[in-house]
Amino acid sequence: MARLANQMKQLYAMCATALVMGRADLDGADDVGFDIELPIFTVGQAAELGNTHPQTLRQYDRLGLVRPQRTDGGARRYCLRDIARLTRAQRLSQDEGINLSGIARILALEEENRQLRREVKRMQTGDQESVFAAGRDGNIVEVQRSNRARLWRNAIRRETRELPGRDTAANTTRESDSTPADSKSMVLWGW
Fold this sequence. Notes:
Layout: H1 2-21, H2 26-31, H3 43-50, H4 54-63, E1 69-70, E2 76-77, H5 80-94, H6 100-125, E3 131-134, E4 140-143, H7 147-158, H8 166-170
Helix pairs in contact: 1-5, 3-4, 5-6
């Protein structure tokens, strides 16, 4: 198990290196199966990958440029998304001369753009019809279809049971009853 965990960390380190060098992007890493939100890198590892000082990472955290996740003990853990943001912030600061508030705005817009591209891609490749509902704030939101609901509806259609009618309960057949012989009742049990 420890060997597998070590191999996984090495794969994530290789992916982070590719992100830093510009040979990969977050969408590509996500598409091939990397969990871009997995907090795997320590402050020292992230600083080494981003070619920066650990104090710079702490400063970026205080300013909100790169917000790592925290362990139960309070230690910072960086994910692939944080590494990509860190390298982008470093490039914008050092190569372009942009101040930190400008970098924060650029990073926010780039992340919003990335999320919108992923949403468009998901909607274009989806072979299902979309279902929309009103959100809490009144905006229209797309609701993900659930296979569980579809399976539940199919099970209801297959498992209809006849309830005893007046005819079968009394075990007598009366011609004067207005209930047709082929009527069925269905009970839906909720949970």
